[in-house]
Amino acid sequence: MTTIAQVRDNLADICSTLSGWQGSPYVGDAVATGTIKVFRDEYDPRFVFGLAKAVVPFQLVAYLKRIESTASETTLDELCEPTGSGSLIAAVALSTNWSVTVDSAQVVNVGKVAVAQWGDGVEYLVCPFDVEVVL
After folding, report:
1. What DSSP character marks residue 98?
2. Which is more confidently placed, 118 or 18?
3. Lowest CB count within 10 Å: 33, 39, 70, 106, which one?
4. How far apart are the C-alpha atoms of 62 and 44, rounded to whole Å?
């Protein structure tokens, strides 16, 4: 069975296939602009063995420095497109992007753009993507 750690790594790899973006499978201590970090969300681990699948939610959060907010927001908007080479939604759903075994994966919610600070005090524009992975 595919592990949560393997899914995190694969999601980061998928994010890194998008032009101008790098994926980070763990929160870590720092953030670079153009990074999509993978957070495991809370979930209920109870399921009926053999009759149901484990559904594990993740949140991918895209970070861009707030230097040119209009350009940064346009770049974040490209991730939000349902299709296209810059679409995070399409990249997650495309089964050939997965090197580990999952039954399905899809973005189930795209959050609003917000301003956040990381440990270095730099302001970033961020956009969260809720992803549901069925193992």
Report:
1. -
2. 18
3. 70
4. 25
